[in-house]
Design goal:
Distance between the termini: 13 Å
Shape: globular
Order of helices and strands: HEHEHEHEEHHEHE
Largest sheet: 7 strands, mixed
Radius of gyration: 18 Å
Number of helices: 7
């Protein structure tokens, strides 16, 4: 039986780029290879299933999509399958909300960036303050990057940046129907 929604989006049935697994350098390499093999015209469909990974690799893949849209005018569609967690949501934020789709029973998980770091202080006192300042700069810049990504994720939806900031520290899991109802995705197929 064909779902009436899926019939409205036939391109989504056969994504040009299919990504699965952890978002890392290997996924980025696969993404670039598949992107290079995409036909030269028409919309591009990218699907992803991931439990998360490296947010910078997700941002790099998203930047490729943004550049493609801006410099070629090509439409790029996002299809989240089953799990779009963490860095997967970061990648999704590179697509406008009206170009995002989820399969039935998919979930998005959004959380704050996480840092695990140990600072070793050893040496003359005059050398210690720069070590601490450098770590503080890293934290502050990571927060700015997170804010930019959060703004991109909710732009065009009914979710406010304040709502997202409030829910993200607790790992916000969003089922497909809720994501559609909140306007984070256009539709469910």
């Amino acid at each position: 039986m064909t779902d009436h929604r899926s019939a409205a989006y036939p391109l989504l049935a056969a994504p040009h780029i299919q990504l699965h697994g952890p978002v890392n350098e290997m996924m980025y390499a696969i993404f670039k290879d598949q992107l290079a093999a995409v036909p030269g015209d028409g919309p591009i469909v990218v699907s992803i299933t991931t439990l998360g990974g490296d947010p910078e690799m997700a941002r790099a893949m998203g930047d490729s999509i943004r550049l493609l849209r801006e410099y070629t005018g090509r439409e790029a569609l996002f299809l989240g399958k089953v799990a779009v967690y963490s860095a997967g949501a970061t990648f999704m934020s590179a697509f406008p909300v009206d170009k995002r789709f989820l399969t039935r029973n998919s979930r998005i998980m959004i959380h704050e960036r996480i840092m695990n770091s140990t600072i070793q202080l050893s040496g003359p006192l005059n050398t210690l303050a720069p070590v601490l300042k450098a770590k503080l700069n890293e934290i502050e810049d990571s927060i700015r990057i997170q804010e930019e990504g959060f703004a991109d994720l909710v732009r065009g939806s009914s979710v406010t940046l304040d709502d997202l900031r409030e829910r993200a520290p607790n790992n916000w899991y969003i089922e497909a129907t809720e994501a559609r109802d909140l306007g984070l995705v256009l539709d469910i197929i």
